[in-house]
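Human: You know discrete backbone vocabularies at least as well as I do. Show me how you would write down a chain together with its backbone fold. No explanation is needed for now; the record alone will do.

Assistant:
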Amino acid sequence: MRKATIRASVALSSALAAVLGGSIARSDSQPPDESVAARVRLALANANAPEASQIEVRAFNGEVDLSGPVDTEDRKAEIARVVGSVKGVTAVHNALQVRDRAAVREESVDDSAIARKVVYALSENADTKSQSIRVVCTNGVVQLDGAVPTSAARDKAELLARTVSGVTQVVNRLHVD
């Protein structure tokens, strides 16, 4: 009886592999395009690329197309390097555009003011004032990093950041300790 169950399981696994086009974990196969694009986005977020939310990522047969704004040529090259190291990426087509330095300076002044306002809002609230929360703002996108004692404090910090004028998006990377 046990041998019959094992044979049935092997037969079912083989049938599934055939139906799914052999997509069950083979080391020589390319990951699907959506999976590659998702890995690239995750790698950019993990590399603390503040412009990640503005970078468009398209993948086809392992080749990744990047477009969107970056601040410097060095940043453009660094992003391409990060993307090239992602599993499943066979080529990177880097069409990222370096923004005008005067526009970058103007935006960074606004971003500094936004970050200060978020820090102030957090410091004035009883749930978040004693927490160690790092605030970074790039092009109106506020990123919150650090540890908070409860999920309520995590949610409150995000809500407070969203209410600050000039904030276009909040990336909440706070974790509950």
Helices lie at 2-19, 33-46, 73-84, 101-123, 151-162. Residues 16 and 96 are 41 Å apart (CA to CA). The chain is about 45% helix and 25% strand.
